[in-house]
Design goal:
With about 325 residues, this protein is α/β, with parallel strands linked by helices. The chain is built from nine helices and 13 strands. The strands form four sheets. Strands 1-7-6-4-5 form a five-stranded mixed sheet, sandwiched between helices. Strand 12 and strand 13 form a beta hairpin. Bound molecules: acetyl coenzyme *A. It is found in: Cytoplasm. Its EC number is 2.3.1.180. It catalyses: malonyl-[ACP] + acetyl-CoA + H(+) = 3-oxobutanoyl-[ACP] + CO2 + CoA.
Length: about 325
């Protein structure tokens, strides 16, 4: 038994925050943001656009693409670090929104690498025979977790949700998966929970030592893509597309260069979406498919890196 992607979907909040908007909020410029990150605008969730709400919308699209009904799902896994509650989990709220009952549902917290981790869990549930169809959602609202006065983080993050349905199949869709972490670097990228009974929670914003994170991300991702290709017994030349985590265009181009891929073979969404954390890879995958660039049979390398540090990849035949 193999696992294979049956359908994908995505949801982006209505509100657009441009670089010009950020120029009004902090001391920055469109030129600096575009040159250093490649980001031009990002979406900001309203109070109603919770990770669960966005996850349901993305899931409905994925179900439609897979020509399935929600009742055919055996499990809902949501990668998020923005859950409204510790419990019920965002996955349970998504299951409720889809009208499901008697379904496996839980969240996975692995920051920007969450989708890779959730995908891996779904794949293993399928090949172990525990589930046939698994909804994997990546949903985050990290723009809200940034200090609006901190120009080093507020420019980077956007909100959104992406989803895919991974199903049992005779055809091998998932070719290789690699996950890992370096917990000794946790101090470089942190998002503490607000503390109960404390009047001032102003130090609970997302903190990132950007420059150090950047260097680690480039090094780790270069190693990760090679390890994943090796696990699948493939070479970079066999790949049709790279679907990378959308943190910084310079990180993405460094990984593409390492794989000797032309940028036309790389799905880039960060110019319009910023870094949507766990949503970034499934949103990019969905966009590549909906634009007709990614076709059935294409070999795709999905990769992500985030706070922890954690990182992960999936090499798939779509
Ligand atoms: N506008 C203008 N100037 C700025 C801004 C801004 N928004 N932000 C920082 N600067 C200044 C700095 O203060 C610094 O000034 P100085 O030289 O006078 O001290 C200068 O610009 C350069 O700052 P750096 O931090 O060195 O800039 P860098 O080129 O590294 O770019 C960035 C910063 C974009 C954050 C980059 O380091 C990055 O993308 N890091 C990786 C992010 C990432 O991959 N995160 C992982 C996933 S996130 C997750 O898991 C939740």
């Amino acid at each position: 038994m193999y696992s294979r992607i049956l359908g994908t979907g995505g949801y982006l909040p209505q509100q657009v925050r441009t670089n010009a908007d950020l120029e009004q909020m902090v001391e920055t410029s469109d030129t600096w943001i575009v040159e250093r990150t490649g980001i031009r605008e990002r979406r900001i969730a309203s109070a109603e656009e919770t990770p669960a709400f966005m996850g349901v919308q993305a899931a409905l699209q994925a179900l439609e693409a897979a020509a399935m009904t929600a009742s055919e799902l055996d499990a809902v896994i949501c990668a998020t670090t923005s859950s409204a509650n510790a419990f019920p989990s965002t996955a349970c709220e998504i299951a409720l929104g889809l009208g499901l009952n008697d379904v496996i549902a839980f969240d996975v917290a692995a920051a920007c690498a969450g989708f890779s981790y959730a995908y891996s869990v779904a794949h293993n549930m399928i090949i172990a025979g525990q589930a046939k169809n698994v909804l994997v959602v990546g949903a985050d609202t990290l723009a809200q977790a940034c200090d609006p006065a901190d120009r080093t983080t507020i420019i980077l993050f956007g909100d959104g949700a992406g989803a895919c349905i991974l199903g049992a199949s005779d055809e091998q869709g998932t070719l290789a998966i690699k996950l890992s972490s370096d917990p000794s670097r946790g101090d470089l990228l942190r998002l503490p929970f607000p503390k109960r009974g404390v009047a001032d929670n102003s130090n609970c914003y997302l903190y990132m030592k950007g420059n150090d994170v950047f260097k680690h991300a480039v090094t780790v991702l270069a190693k990760l893509v090679n390890e994943t290709l090796e696990l699948a017994g493939l070479e970079a030349g066999d790949l049709d597309f790279l679907v990378p985590h959308q943190a910084n265009l310079r990180i993405i181009t460094a990984t593409a260069r390492k794989l000797k891929l032309d940028m036309s073979q790389v799905i880039v969404t960060l110019d319009k979406q910023g870094n949507t954390s766990a949503a970034s890879v499934p949103l990019a995958l969905d966009e590549g498919i909906r634009q007709g660039r990614i076709k059935r049979g294409d070999k795709l390398l999905l990769e992500s890196f985030g706070g922890g540090f954690v990182w992960g990849s999936a090499l798939i035949r779509y």
